[in-house]
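User: Can you write out an input/output pair for a complex, sequences first and structure second?

Assistant: Here is one pair. Inputs:
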Amino acid sequence: MSITKTTTGVVETTKSNGGFTGAAANYIDERTSISTAVKELGRKIFPDHWSFLLGEVALYSFVIILLSGTFLTFFFSASMAPVHYEGSYVPLKGVEMSAAMSSSLNISFDIRGGLLMRQVHHWAALLFVASIGLHMLRIYFTGAFRKPRELNWVIGFILFILAMAEGFTGYSLPDDLLSGNGLRIIDGMVKGIPLVGTWISFLLFGGEFPGEAIVGRLYSLHILLLPAIIIALIAMHLLFVVVHKHTQYPGAGRTNQNVVGYPVLPVYAAKAGGFFFIVFGVVMLMASLFTINPIWNYGPYDPSPVSAGTQPDWYIGFADGALRLIPPGLEFVWLDRTWSFNILIPLVSLGLFILVVLIYPFIEAWVTGDKREHHILDRPRNAPTRTAIGAAGVTFYAALWSTASSDIIATHFHVTMEGVIHACQFATIVGPFIAFFVAKRVCLALQKKDREIVLHGYESGRIVRLPGGEYIEVHQPVDEYERWKLVSYSDYKPLMIRPNDQGRITAGQRVRGGLSRWFFEDRIVPVTTTELEQSHGDHH
Amino acid sequence: MATDDNSGKDLTAADSGAGHNPANAGTAVVVRDAVDNPGFPPHRPRVTDLNPSAERRAERTVYTLFYLSIVGSVFAIAAYMAFPIVDTDPGSVRLNNLFIGLGLALALLAIGIGAVHWGKALMSDHEGIDVRHPVRGSEETRARAVEIFAEANEESGIGRRSLIRNSLIGALIAFPLPAVVLFRGLGPMNENPSELLTHTMWTKGTRLAIDPTGTPIKASDVTLGSAFHVIPEGLQDLPSGRLEEKAKAAVLLMRLKPEDLNELPERAGWSYDGIVAYSKICTHVGCPVALYEQQTHHLLCPCHQSQFDVSNHCEVIFGPAKRPLPQLPIAVDSEGYLIAQSDFTEPVGPSFWERH
């Protein structure tokens, strides 16, 4: 590196003997001031935990998608102009199809490594949405969305929606039979929207379905607009991670005012950088071993045929399942217009579900009234109601998702199609309540067990016979480091509603009080030092 | 009340929220006699720290993996050349995919595993500590920010000169509106979607033809229990818009025993000798209702499992669809071919707002 000396306003640099690296570093720094960034970020600390890798998987699969997708754009032709297929896949030779389908087949059968890149792209896309979903669950169940990270939750959730949009637009591009039926379903859903639906569909498809415009339009969204927004939001998302510093799990020595872990240089550069290659390698392995989206089996899109057991990519399943769950007869003509509640109910309920997830951090912050920053993660058991709400949400989503496979379930398990749908309807409506109750009780029981361990030690497995003939199992006290994990959590009590300055209790206060009671009426308080002292010598 | 909810006293001189008032903890319970944070547990050295031969082994593993990665890359390039795609051999695509992919996977995984192993086994494993500061700016910074806005307001007069401000807001709201109008051009002008959706290619006298060959169907060809996928004759010869027409005009043709057919009185003349024709496009969201159960005379839509009963004018017996599949009135022409009596008498396919 170089030493900078200032004499009478002139900056002089003296070369140190860093050789080429030093000279290059000096050259760049004198033009970019990059040493500031290295100083600020080079030894930045990141805590270690396997669950923190989920977000990394999402980021890396996005990079893989960009790399493989760029390769595909060089060969893909986003046109629905009819052509006769003349590539080397014999069963479809001479068949009329769109240029999009024909070029997708050429990527698969005529370009070396083309099929591999297509499969890398598709597998990475499936992994992208899956890892965002799991990352969000980790954030949710550990309470990492609390102040100051509420806005980053919102950004991340928008990224989740955009990832699904990217998935759907990409999945529709090859213009094969399966994706064409997917677009047909979108068209039917859009047409079911009151007032504007017919026109939105007309404009989207550039006329009547399917038209010759939709693939080109989805292509613009898929490779330009949506990726640009995603990249901008990812940049913001990561910027906030730097600003907030990473959260950490409770542990001895860790506080709300520190971050304990390894520095970016060198440990995290090696581990996180290496992890990118591992994710890429696993995706590559899947792409070379497992077929995904064999469009040549489906054939080109045609509005008349369809294959039994059609299913969208996994992340669209919950929406498709919601459509299947609607019982017959929910469509009416009223005021000389058609009201398609068989489409509106799924659309509105999924919209509400998404909205609740999006604003959940603000709801919880309002209920607790807690304005402190939270950098220590909650163990899920220590926030029983939140965990139970999460379990209910997961159950709701899972029930919708499994409904998307109702016909496959019926044929595989030899049960009736109607029976599966009725079971899924039951699971969607009642399942979340059961999940809520069970998860909450499990959390409370685990908290009680933690208390028990802190106060009375853990079961050592050593059985001792007392002089009187009684057998007891010796309980060993946990060490203070282990104990800290069990006792350090924030505890809330239900809100006592009080009249405001005008002596009135507002409706908002009542709602908040009710929610607060629902959240915190069942609570297990953390062990205090007083209790610890009282329990001393009580380890059996 | 402390802002430090973990009572992390001694560690890293944690002075939480220095410089501003402690934040409100809401309904959180702050306990006075909470258990103290015991501080960091003693550091446990790794086997590579204690045993030099383990360290050398780890080093060997790391560089072997990196060399292996080079082997993988070279293998992928070799596979690209050694396993070309041969036009006449469909299996060649699989080999090309498999071996390029395996080479690349090895190249990537070996770098990744090597780097992670290097980080975990050989790099210093002493944890570092960063001190957090409140996310909000310091009091001086915040005061200065407020001051800057006040100065900008003063110097521009945006608060004072309300006419300038309000007209600017108006202009900014108005200027994107032309862009919205431009999007009308996404769909063709001078066409009305709901008008288009109410008509199909079927007219009086159009012959029913087999999908996809376009061969007309004779009534005598339709044996009892059979089902035909049907398009209007001439669809294949349309210069353009074939898929759009097909998406509305696709029909399923089935022959049932006349006694099994429970026809509506107003549709008495719409079938021919037990042969009935129904739109193939689901009235739910428009998938083709392609699965016919010959024994029960039920049609099943594979997308969302709506079921229609052909013997009862295709009414919905299960699933999210509401309306029966529209029926195409058919007859037989002088040469014995099946023809349409007219277009469908109602719009086919998914419901839309203007439908009534």
